[in-house]
Amino acid sequence: MAGPKREDWGSGDAAKVAHWSQRTAAYHGTVTWSPTIDPERLKLLSQEIVLERKVKLIYHSWAAIPIVQDGAVKGIVFESKEGRMAIMADVVVDATGDGDLFARAGAAFVNDIEEADVHHCMNTSWLFGGVDMNRWIEFKAGQPEQFTEFMARGREQLGLFERPFVSWRNDIALFMGPRQSGYSALDVDDLTEVEVRSHRAMAAHLDYFRAHAPGFKDAFLMLSAPQIGVRHARRLSGVSSVLRSQWPLGVPLADEVGVTPAVSPKFPNISIPYGALVPQQLDGLLACGRHISCDRNSHGFMREIPQCWTTGQAAGVAAALAVEGRVAPRAIDIGALQSALLSQGVYLRPGAGTDALAKAQQPETKDATAA
Ligand SMILES: Cc1cc2nc3c(=O)[nH]c(=O)nc-3n(C[C@H](O)[C@H](O)[C@H](O)COP(=O)(O)OP(=O)(O)OC[C@H]3O[C@@H](n4cnc5c(N)ncnc54)[C@H](O)[C@@H]3O)c2cc1C
User: What atom of ligand 1 comes closest to residue 307's alpha carbon?
Assistant: First the structure.
Protein backbone atom coordinates (compact mmCIF):
# COMPACT_ATOMS: atom_id res chain seq x y z
CA MET A 1 0.00 0.00 0.00
CA ALA A 2 1.00 3.62 -0.46
CA GLY A 3 0.60 6.12 2.37
CA PRO A 4 2.44 8.21 4.95
CA LYS A 5 4.79 6.64 7.49
CA ARG A 6 3.39 6.09 10.94
CA GLU A 7 5.49 8.88 12.47
CA ASP A 8 3.86 11.35 10.03
CA TRP A 9 0.24 10.55 10.93
CA GLY A 10 -1.30 13.69 12.41
CA SER A 11 1.60 15.91 11.29
CA GLY A 12 0.83 19.54 10.43
CA ASP A 13 4.22 20.09 8.74
CA ALA A 14 3.48 22.25 5.68
CA ALA A 15 5.75 20.35 3.26
CA LYS A 16 4.38 16.95 4.33
CA VAL A 17 0.77 18.18 4.14
CA ALA A 18 1.41 19.60 0.65
CA HIS A 19 2.94 16.29 -0.49
CA TRP A 20 0.20 14.05 0.94
CA SER A 21 -2.71 16.30 0.01
CA GLN A 22 -1.91 15.40 -3.62
CA ARG A 23 -2.00 11.73 -2.62
CA THR A 24 -5.33 11.46 -0.73
CA ALA A 25 -3.60 11.38 2.68
CA ALA A 26 -3.86 14.91 4.10
CA TYR A 27 -7.06 16.66 5.09
CA HIS A 28 -7.73 20.09 6.63
CA GLY A 29 -3.97 20.71 7.04
CA THR A 30 -3.20 17.36 8.73
CA VAL A 31 -1.48 14.25 7.38
CA THR A 32 -3.94 11.34 7.73
CA TRP A 33 -3.63 7.56 7.81
CA SER A 34 -5.62 6.87 4.67
CA PRO A 35 -3.47 4.65 2.47
CA THR A 36 -4.21 3.43 -1.04
CA ILE A 37 -4.23 -0.36 -1.11
CA ASP A 38 -3.25 -2.83 -3.82
CA PRO A 39 -6.64 -4.54 -4.38
CA GLU A 40 -5.20 -7.89 -5.50
CA ARG A 41 -3.02 -8.18 -2.38
CA LEU A 42 -6.02 -7.25 -0.22
CA LYS A 43 -8.21 -9.94 -1.84
CA LEU A 44 -5.51 -12.59 -1.42
CA LEU A 45 -4.70 -11.61 2.16
CA SER A 46 -8.40 -11.50 3.16
CA GLN A 47 -8.94 -14.96 1.71
CA GLU A 48 -5.92 -16.40 3.52
CA ILE A 49 -6.92 -14.85 6.86
CA VAL A 50 -10.35 -16.50 6.83
CA LEU A 51 -8.98 -19.83 5.57
CA GLU A 52 -6.34 -19.85 8.34
CA ARG A 53 -9.23 -19.55 10.81
CA LYS A 54 -10.90 -22.61 9.27
CA VAL A 55 -13.81 -20.70 7.74
CA LYS A 56 -15.49 -22.62 4.93
CA LEU A 57 -15.47 -20.28 1.94
CA ILE A 58 -18.14 -20.61 -0.76
CA TYR A 59 -17.37 -18.43 -3.79
CA HIS A 60 -19.57 -18.09 -6.89
CA SER A 61 -22.88 -18.37 -5.04
CA TRP A 62 -25.55 -15.72 -4.78
CA ALA A 63 -27.61 -15.32 -1.59
CA ALA A 64 -31.16 -15.31 -2.94
CA ILE A 65 -33.85 -16.05 -0.36
CA PRO A 66 -33.76 -15.94 3.45
CA ILE A 67 -35.47 -18.78 5.29
CA VAL A 68 -37.64 -17.17 7.98
CA GLN A 69 -39.57 -18.99 10.70
CA ASP A 70 -41.42 -17.35 13.59
CA GLY A 71 -39.88 -13.93 12.98
CA ALA A 72 -36.28 -15.23 12.87
CA VAL A 73 -33.89 -15.93 9.98
CA LYS A 74 -32.83 -19.59 10.08
CA GLY A 75 -30.70 -19.74 6.95
CA ILE A 76 -30.33 -18.57 3.36
CA VAL A 77 -31.08 -20.17 0.00
CA PHE A 78 -28.16 -19.66 -2.39
CA GLU A 79 -28.14 -19.96 -6.22
CA SER A 80 -25.03 -21.23 -7.95
CA LYS A 81 -23.81 -23.45 -10.82
CA GLU A 82 -24.89 -26.36 -8.63
CA GLY A 83 -28.44 -25.06 -8.65
CA ARG A 84 -30.10 -24.17 -5.39
CA MET A 85 -28.80 -24.91 -1.89
CA ALA A 86 -29.71 -23.80 1.59
CA ILE A 87 -27.22 -22.97 4.30
CA MET A 88 -28.77 -23.06 7.75
CA ALA A 89 -27.35 -20.77 10.45
CA ASP A 90 -28.05 -19.70 14.02
CA VAL A 91 -27.13 -16.14 13.05
CA VAL A 92 -26.90 -14.65 9.55
CA VAL A 93 -24.81 -11.51 9.02
CA ASP A 94 -26.12 -9.51 6.07
CA ALA A 95 -23.06 -7.91 4.43
CA THR A 96 -24.58 -7.48 0.95
CA GLY A 97 -24.26 -3.68 1.17
CA ASP A 98 -27.77 -3.30 -0.26
CA GLY A 99 -29.63 -5.05 2.58
CA ASP A 100 -30.83 -7.79 0.20
CA LEU A 101 -31.25 -10.29 3.00
CA PHE A 102 -32.84 -8.23 5.73
CA ALA A 103 -35.23 -6.64 3.21
CA ARG A 104 -36.32 -10.00 1.80
CA ALA A 105 -36.68 -11.37 5.33
CA GLY A 106 -39.18 -8.60 6.06
CA ALA A 107 -37.11 -6.23 8.23
CA ALA A 108 -37.98 -2.54 8.05
CA PHE A 109 -35.60 -0.29 6.13
CA VAL A 110 -35.34 3.23 4.69
CA ASN A 111 -33.85 4.50 1.43
CA ASP A 112 -34.10 8.30 1.50
CA ILE A 113 -31.04 10.16 0.19
CA GLU A 114 -29.10 13.36 0.78
CA GLU A 115 -29.26 15.15 -2.58
CA ALA A 116 -26.23 17.34 -1.83
CA ASP A 117 -24.03 14.32 -1.02
CA VAL A 118 -22.52 11.90 -3.54
CA HIS A 119 -23.66 8.93 -1.45
CA HIS A 120 -26.45 7.93 -3.87
CA CYS A 121 -24.28 7.98 -7.02
CA MET A 122 -23.06 4.86 -8.81
CA ASN A 123 -20.31 4.15 -11.33
CA THR A 124 -17.83 1.49 -12.35
CA SER A 125 -14.32 2.64 -11.45
CA TRP A 126 -11.30 1.89 -13.62
CA LEU A 127 -7.52 1.88 -13.75
CA PHE A 128 -5.21 3.22 -16.47
CA GLY A 129 -1.73 1.66 -16.65
CA GLY A 130 1.44 3.09 -18.25
CA VAL A 131 1.10 6.53 -16.62
CA ASP A 132 3.52 8.72 -14.66
CA MET A 133 1.49 10.05 -11.73
CA ASN A 134 4.43 12.10 -10.37
CA ARG A 135 4.49 14.00 -13.67
CA TRP A 136 0.67 14.47 -13.43
CA ILE A 137 0.93 15.82 -9.86
CA GLU A 138 3.73 18.18 -10.92
CA PHE A 139 1.34 19.57 -13.57
CA LYS A 140 -1.71 19.72 -11.31
CA ALA A 141 0.09 21.39 -8.39
CA GLY A 142 2.66 23.40 -10.33
CA GLN A 143 0.53 24.82 -13.19
CA PRO A 144 -2.86 25.62 -11.59
CA GLU A 145 -4.10 27.82 -14.45
CA GLN A 146 -3.32 25.22 -17.11
CA PHE A 147 -4.88 22.56 -14.88
CA THR A 148 -8.11 24.58 -14.56
CA GLU A 149 -8.18 25.00 -18.33
CA PHE A 150 -7.55 21.26 -18.81
CA MET A 151 -10.49 20.42 -16.52
CA ALA A 152 -12.82 22.96 -18.19
CA ARG A 153 -12.00 21.59 -21.65
CA GLY A 154 -12.51 18.03 -20.42
CA ARG A 155 -15.97 18.88 -19.05
CA GLU A 156 -16.85 20.65 -22.28
CA GLN A 157 -15.79 17.72 -24.48
CA LEU A 158 -16.84 14.75 -22.34
CA GLY A 159 -19.73 16.05 -20.23
CA LEU A 160 -19.25 14.04 -17.04
CA PHE A 161 -15.52 14.39 -16.48
CA GLU A 162 -13.25 12.96 -13.81
CA ARG A 163 -9.67 13.47 -12.72
CA PRO A 164 -7.47 10.61 -11.55
CA PHE A 165 -6.42 9.72 -8.03
CA VAL A 166 -3.02 8.30 -7.17
CA SER A 167 -2.93 4.55 -6.65
CA TRP A 168 -0.50 2.25 -4.89
CA ARG A 169 1.96 2.60 -7.82
CA ASN A 170 3.26 5.56 -9.83
CA ASP A 171 2.44 3.85 -13.15
CA ILE A 172 -1.25 3.20 -12.33
CA ALA A 173 -3.96 5.89 -12.19
CA LEU A 174 -7.25 5.35 -10.39
CA PHE A 175 -10.52 6.87 -11.63
CA MET A 176 -13.30 6.63 -9.01
CA GLY A 177 -15.88 8.39 -11.21
CA PRO A 178 -17.53 10.03 -13.10
CA ARG A 179 -20.32 9.48 -10.58
CA GLN A 180 -23.80 9.01 -11.99
CA SER A 181 -26.95 9.97 -10.14
CA GLY A 182 -30.62 9.15 -10.65
CA TYR A 183 -30.15 5.36 -10.84
CA SER A 184 -31.24 2.60 -8.48
CA ALA A 185 -28.81 -0.09 -7.32
CA LEU A 186 -31.82 -2.43 -7.00
CA ASP A 187 -32.87 -2.16 -10.67
CA VAL A 188 -31.05 -4.41 -13.14
CA ASP A 189 -31.71 -2.09 -16.11
CA ASP A 190 -30.23 0.82 -14.15
CA LEU A 191 -27.19 -1.23 -13.12
CA THR A 192 -26.68 -2.23 -16.76
CA GLU A 193 -26.97 1.34 -17.99
CA VAL A 194 -24.47 2.65 -15.44
CA GLU A 195 -22.07 -0.15 -16.43
CA VAL A 196 -22.39 0.70 -20.15
CA ARG A 197 -21.99 4.44 -19.54
CA SER A 198 -18.97 3.89 -17.28
CA HIS A 199 -17.17 1.76 -19.88
CA ARG A 200 -17.82 4.38 -22.56
CA ALA A 201 -16.56 7.11 -20.22
CA MET A 202 -13.42 5.05 -19.61
CA ALA A 203 -12.61 4.96 -23.35
CA ALA A 204 -13.40 8.66 -23.85
CA HIS A 205 -11.22 9.61 -20.87
CA LEU A 206 -8.33 7.55 -22.26
CA ASP A 207 -8.41 9.46 -25.56
CA TYR A 208 -8.61 12.83 -23.83
CA PHE A 209 -5.92 12.09 -21.24
CA ARG A 210 -3.50 10.59 -23.78
CA ALA A 211 -3.85 13.70 -25.93
CA HIS A 212 -3.78 16.39 -23.24
CA ALA A 213 -2.65 15.19 -19.78
CA PRO A 214 1.03 15.35 -18.77
CA GLY A 215 2.10 11.85 -17.66
CA PHE A 216 -0.61 10.06 -19.72
CA LYS A 217 0.95 9.87 -23.22
CA ASP A 218 1.42 6.06 -23.03
CA ALA A 219 -1.65 5.27 -20.87
CA PHE A 220 -3.70 2.14 -21.62
CA LEU A 221 -6.98 0.65 -20.39
CA MET A 222 -5.84 -1.62 -17.57
CA LEU A 223 -8.95 -2.73 -15.72
CA SER A 224 -12.54 -1.73 -15.05
CA ALA A 225 -13.64 -2.71 -11.54
CA PRO A 226 -14.82 -6.35 -11.30
CA GLN A 227 -17.96 -5.01 -9.67
CA ILE A 228 -20.06 -1.87 -10.14
CA GLY A 229 -19.55 0.71 -7.38
CA VAL A 230 -22.73 1.22 -5.39
CA ARG A 231 -22.69 3.67 -2.52
CA HIS A 232 -26.26 3.40 -1.29
CA ALA A 233 -29.43 1.32 -1.71
CA ARG A 234 -31.27 0.42 1.52
CA ARG A 235 -30.46 1.18 5.16
CA LEU A 236 -31.69 -0.98 8.02
CA SER A 237 -34.21 0.46 10.49
CA GLY A 238 -32.38 -0.66 13.59
CA VAL A 239 -32.99 -0.77 17.31
CA SER A 240 -30.89 2.44 17.33
CA SER A 241 -29.10 4.49 14.68
CA VAL A 242 -26.19 6.80 13.95
CA LEU A 243 -27.96 10.16 13.73
CA ARG A 244 -27.17 13.69 12.59
CA SER A 245 -28.51 15.00 15.92
CA GLN A 246 -25.67 13.14 17.72
CA TRP A 247 -22.82 14.78 15.78
CA PRO A 248 -22.29 17.80 18.06
CA LEU A 249 -22.57 15.75 21.28
CA GLY A 250 -19.79 13.17 20.95
CA VAL A 251 -21.21 11.28 23.95
CA PRO A 252 -20.06 7.63 24.15
CA LEU A 253 -23.22 5.51 24.00
CA ALA A 254 -23.63 2.61 26.41
CA ASP A 255 -23.64 0.05 23.57
CA GLU A 256 -20.74 1.58 21.62
CA VAL A 257 -19.06 -1.00 19.37
CA GLY A 258 -16.91 1.44 17.43
CA VAL A 259 -16.07 5.10 17.00
CA THR A 260 -16.28 7.22 13.87
CA PRO A 261 -15.37 10.76 13.00
CA ALA A 262 -18.42 12.74 11.84
CA VAL A 263 -18.37 14.51 8.53
CA SER A 264 -15.96 17.29 9.54
CA PRO A 265 -13.22 17.77 12.16
CA LYS A 266 -15.35 20.53 13.73
CA PHE A 267 -17.46 17.75 15.30
CA PRO A 268 -16.19 15.35 18.00
CA ASN A 269 -15.90 11.62 17.29
CA ILE A 270 -19.20 9.80 17.70
CA SER A 271 -20.37 6.37 18.83
CA ILE A 272 -21.47 3.56 16.56
CA PRO A 273 -24.08 1.77 18.72
CA TYR A 274 -24.61 -2.00 18.59
CA GLY A 275 -28.34 -1.28 18.08
CA ALA A 276 -27.52 0.07 14.59
CA LEU A 277 -26.68 -3.52 13.53
CA VAL A 278 -29.83 -5.08 15.03
CA PRO A 279 -33.19 -5.01 13.17
CA GLN A 280 -36.11 -3.49 15.06
CA GLN A 281 -38.13 -6.73 14.86
CA LEU A 282 -36.41 -9.52 12.95
CA ASP A 283 -34.29 -12.05 14.89
CA GLY A 284 -31.46 -14.31 13.71
CA LEU A 285 -29.82 -11.57 11.64
CA LEU A 286 -27.30 -8.75 12.07
CA ALA A 287 -26.33 -6.10 9.53
CA CYS A 288 -22.88 -4.62 8.88
CA GLY A 289 -21.25 -2.36 6.30
CA ARG A 290 -22.83 0.43 4.31
CA HIS A 291 -26.46 -0.56 5.00
CA ILE A 292 -26.42 -0.33 8.82
CA SER A 293 -28.99 1.83 10.58
CA CYS A 294 -28.22 5.54 10.21
CA ASP A 295 -29.92 8.63 8.83
CA ARG A 296 -29.13 9.84 5.34
CA ASN A 297 -26.69 12.54 6.54
CA SER A 298 -24.66 10.08 8.60
CA HIS A 299 -24.64 7.58 5.73
CA GLY A 300 -22.16 9.92 3.98
CA PHE A 301 -19.42 8.65 6.34
CA MET A 302 -20.90 5.41 7.73
CA ARG A 303 -20.50 3.91 4.23
CA GLU A 304 -16.73 4.52 4.21
CA ILE A 305 -14.37 1.55 4.34
CA PRO A 306 -13.04 1.95 7.94
CA GLN A 307 -16.58 2.24 9.28
CA CYS A 308 -17.64 -0.84 7.27
CA TRP A 309 -14.70 -2.78 8.74
CA THR A 310 -15.63 -1.60 12.24
CA THR A 311 -19.26 -2.73 11.98
CA GLY A 312 -18.23 -5.97 10.24
CA GLN A 313 -15.96 -6.89 13.14
CA ALA A 314 -18.65 -5.97 15.69
CA ALA A 315 -21.30 -8.03 13.85
CA GLY A 316 -18.99 -11.06 13.61
CA VAL A 317 -18.10 -10.99 17.30
CA ALA A 318 -21.75 -10.39 18.30
CA ALA A 319 -22.89 -13.32 16.11
CA ALA A 320 -20.30 -15.59 17.76
CA LEU A 321 -21.48 -14.53 21.23
CA ALA A 322 -25.13 -15.11 20.31
CA VAL A 323 -24.34 -18.61 19.01
CA GLU A 324 -22.17 -19.42 22.04
CA GLY A 325 -24.79 -18.14 24.50
CA ARG A 326 -27.74 -19.61 22.52
CA VAL A 327 -29.52 -16.24 22.59
CA ALA A 328 -30.92 -13.92 19.95
CA PRO A 329 -28.39 -11.30 18.75
CA ARG A 330 -30.48 -8.55 20.41
CA ALA A 331 -30.15 -10.32 23.78
CA ILE A 332 -26.36 -10.71 24.02
CA ASP A 333 -24.43 -9.23 26.93
CA ILE A 334 -23.15 -5.86 25.64
CA GLY A 335 -20.35 -5.84 28.23
CA ALA A 336 -19.08 -9.20 26.94
CA LEU A 337 -19.22 -7.87 23.36
CA GLN A 338 -17.25 -4.75 24.29
CA SER A 339 -14.68 -6.82 26.25
CA ALA A 340 -14.16 -9.10 23.27
CA LEU A 341 -13.78 -6.15 20.89
CA LEU A 342 -11.34 -4.41 23.25
CA SER A 343 -9.26 -7.58 23.55
CA GLN A 344 -8.99 -7.57 19.74
CA GLY A 345 -7.64 -4.01 19.80
CA VAL A 346 -10.83 -2.16 18.85
CA TYR A 347 -10.88 1.45 20.03
CA LEU A 348 -13.78 2.11 22.43
CA ARG A 349 -13.96 5.09 24.74
CA PRO A 350 -14.05 5.30 28.50
CA GLY A 351 -17.67 5.83 29.44
CA ALA A 352 -18.81 3.38 26.80
CA GLY A 353 -19.06 0.14 28.75
CA THR A 354 -16.81 1.21 31.62
CA ASP A 355 -16.96 -2.30 33.10
CA ALA A 356 -15.79 -3.79 29.85
CA LEU A 357 -12.80 -1.45 29.76
CA ALA A 358 -11.83 -2.42 33.30
CA LYS A 359 -12.23 -6.14 32.54
CA ALA A 360 -10.20 -5.87 29.34
CA GLN A 361 -7.21 -4.73 31.35
CA GLN A 362 -7.24 -8.00 33.30
CA PRO A 363 -5.01 -10.78 31.85
CA GLU A 364 -7.65 -13.51 31.46
CA THR A 365 -9.95 -11.54 29.08
CA LYS A 366 -11.86 -13.94 26.89
CA ASP A 367 -11.67 -13.80 23.09
CA ALA A 368 -15.19 -14.34 21.74
CA THR A 369 -14.12 -15.02 18.14
CA ALA A 370 -12.90 -18.44 19.26
CA ALA A 371 -16.58 -19.39 19.52
C1 LIG B 1 -16.40 4.25 -6.71
C2 LIG B 1 -16.33 4.25 -5.22
C3 LIG B 1 -15.23 4.79 -4.59
C4 LIG B 1 -15.14 4.78 -3.20
N5 LIG B 1 -14.03 5.30 -2.60
C6 LIG B 1 -13.88 5.18 -1.26
C7 LIG B 1 -12.66 5.61 -0.64
O8 LIG B 1 -11.76 6.10 -1.28
N9 LIG B 1 -12.56 5.44 0.71
C10 LIG B 1 -13.56 4.89 1.45
O11 LIG B 1 -13.38 4.73 2.67
N12 LIG B 1 -14.73 4.50 0.88
C13 LIG B 1 -14.89 4.63 -0.45
N14 LIG B 1 -16.06 4.22 -1.05
C15 LIG B 1 -17.12 3.65 -0.20
C16 LIG B 1 -16.81 2.23 0.21
O17 LIG B 1 -15.90 1.64 -0.70
C18 LIG B 1 -18.05 1.33 0.30
O19 LIG B 1 -19.14 1.99 0.83
C20 LIG B 1 -17.73 0.11 1.15
O21 LIG B 1 -16.65 -0.62 0.57
C22 LIG B 1 -18.95 -0.77 1.31
O23 LIG B 1 -18.57 -1.99 1.90
P24 LIG B 1 -19.62 -3.15 2.15
O25 LIG B 1 -18.81 -4.36 2.48
O26 LIG B 1 -20.67 -2.70 3.10
O27 LIG B 1 -20.37 -3.34 0.75
P28 LIG B 1 -19.80 -3.80 -0.65
O29 LIG B 1 -18.38 -3.36 -0.81
O30 LIG B 1 -20.79 -3.37 -1.67
O31 LIG B 1 -19.74 -5.40 -0.54
C32 LIG B 1 -20.90 -6.18 -0.63
C33 LIG B 1 -20.46 -7.53 -1.14
O34 LIG B 1 -21.55 -8.42 -1.08
C35 LIG B 1 -21.69 -9.09 -2.32
N36 LIG B 1 -23.12 -9.34 -2.49
C37 LIG B 1 -24.11 -8.42 -2.61
N38 LIG B 1 -25.29 -9.01 -2.70
C39 LIG B 1 -25.05 -10.34 -2.61
C40 LIG B 1 -25.88 -11.49 -2.64
N41 LIG B 1 -27.22 -11.37 -2.74
N42 LIG B 1 -25.29 -12.71 -2.53
C43 LIG B 1 -23.95 -12.84 -2.41
N44 LIG B 1 -23.12 -11.78 -2.37
C45 LIG B 1 -23.67 -10.55 -2.48
C46 LIG B 1 -21.16 -8.13 -3.36
O47 LIG B 1 -20.75 -8.84 -4.51
C48 LIG B 1 -20.00 -7.51 -2.59
O49 LIG B 1 -18.82 -8.27 -2.72
C50 LIG B 1 -16.19 4.22 -2.45
C51 LIG B 1 -17.31 3.66 -3.07
C52 LIG B 1 -17.38 3.67 -4.45
C53 LIG B 1 -18.57 3.04 -5.12
Answer: 11
